[in-house]
Design goal:
The chain is α/β, with parallel strands linked by helices. Helix 7 packs across helix 8 (about 255-265). The protein has three domains: about 1-85, no CATH class; about 105-280, Nucleotidyltransferase, domain 5; about 285-345. The strands form four sheets. A five-stranded mixed beta sheet has the order 6-5-4-7-8, sandwiched between helices. A four-stranded antiparallel beta sheet has the order 11-12-10-13, covered by helices on one side. Strand 1 and strand 2 form a beta hairpin. The protein has helices at about 60-70, 75-85, 160-165, 170-175, 180-190, 200-210, 235-245, 255-265, 275-285, 300-305, 325-335; strands at about 50-55, 55-60, 90, 105-115, 125-135, 140-150, 195, 220, 245, 285-295, 310, 315-320, 340-345. One of its GO terms (biological process) is DNA replication proofreading. One of its GO terms (molecular function) is nucleic acid binding. Its EC number is 2.7.7.7. Pfam families: RNase_T (PF00929).
Length: about 350
């Protein structure tokens, strides 16, 4: 069992703090040990490093040190996290496409992401589309990736410079590119539902591009999962990915699909509940969307914490039918909302730009 991670600096100041050291009196070590990040790399790389072995201090070469860290990487990272001095984020590795999936997972979902020229589906257009077909079981737990597709697409308007700066997709990159629509429709044909991070945005563009997307229920990993109740302040894709211990190259469609997959089925740092199970449970029940208009300005922070989102004209939240009465009472008594609008939502119409 690894006791502590050897310091990089072999000549630190006396009495520097080393987390978890066995022979440290009041959690301090004798001169020669340090985890001070301010001096990392100050000494020559050829100098030997030090490690603890029981109560003995042993020296080893940089090559031995590197080999030790690589061969015990997961254990080293776990020990580093325990110190609470820093947090560890791994580069996200794409899960392989499996030819022979686990037979216990008989259902499928489609994880979707698009890159566009802007945010208005009436004006803007898709520049890149990607999807992953993933198996799930009867409870909604995720299994294997069984299919993957991504492609650039030439939009009907030029890509603005600020979008190119964000996505690194240029007009030259998309010139003459089209999607394999029959392949996408085939992937879509037998899925239980489609999931996207901000499904209202993705469904609007996908349905405009391929009408078959309007025939399948959609779930939203941004709105349908109670991230705020788990204390997760940042709910964008990159922020949530960091919560489960990874980072990725954001704003490319396929990378974002794999990032969303990791959030829905975290492998390294589990969440309080399995997000995909929540989505699968949610997609099977009709709900209502409550729009709260002209709320007190001082209530904005509390409404946001409660799960409301600003929709341009007011705050809105989607709840189970059984929770409607309690939510309306809250808005009337505490938020003192001027008026509310309640929209019934069928499973098929959820996040749809045309079926509401």
């Amino acid at each position: 069992m690894l006791t502590t991670l050897a310091p990089v600096d072999p000549h630190p100041l006396p009495g520097d703090f080393v987390p978890g050291a066995r022979n440290a009196k009041k959690r301090r070590l004798p001169s020669g040990w340090s985890t001070s990040s301010s001096r990392i790399g100050r000494r020559a790389a050829t100098e030997p490093k030090k490690r603890l072995s029981g109560n003995r201090v042993e020296a080893f070469t940089p090559a031995e040190f590197s080999a030790f860290v690589v061969s015990n990487l997961d254990q080293v990272l776990a020990e580093v996290e325990k110190t609470r001095i820093c947090r560890v984020e791994k580069a996200l590795q794409r899960r392989p496409v499996v030819v022979r999936p686990d037979p216990r997972f008989q259902r499928t979902v489609l994880v979707v992401d698009v890159e566009t020229t802007g945010t208005n589906p009436d004006i803007d257009d898709v520049t890149e589309f990607a999807c992953l077909k993933v198996t799930i079981n009867d409870e909604g737990k995720m299994g294997d990736v069984v299919a993957s597709y991504s492609s650039l697409r030439e939009p009907h308007i030029p890509i603005p410079p600020d979008i190119t700066l964000l996505t690194n997709i240029t007009n030259d990159d998309v010139a003459g590119k089209t999607l394999d629509v029959p392949k996408i429709v085939e992937l879509l044909s037998d899925v239980e539902f489609v999931v996207a991070h901000n499904a209202k945005f993705d469904r609007s563009f996908c349905s405009k591009m391929i009408p078959e997307f309007e025939c399948v229920p959609w779930a939203c990993s941004l709105d349908d999962i109670p991230w705020h109740t788990w204390g997760l302040v940042s709910q964008n894709l990159s922020g949530l990915l960091k919560e489960v211990g990874y980072y990725h190259g954001a704003h490319r469609a396929l990378d974002d699909c794999y990032a969303l997959l990791e959030i829905l089925d975290p492998r390294w740092k589990p969440l309080p509940q399995e997000p995909c199970v929540i989505l699968y449970d949610t997609i099977q029940r009709p709900r209502v969307r409550i729009d709260a208009r002209k709320t007190r300005f001082t209530m904005n922070g509390e409404l946001k914490k409660r799960g409301y989102r600003w929709n341009g004209s007011g705050w809105s939240i989607t709840v189970e039918i059984e929770e409607e009465a309690a939510e309306l009472a809250y808005l009337k008594q505490k938020a003192r909302t001027a008026y509310t609008i309640v929209h019934s939502e069928t499973v098929e119409a959820k996040y749809s730009p045309t079926l509401r």
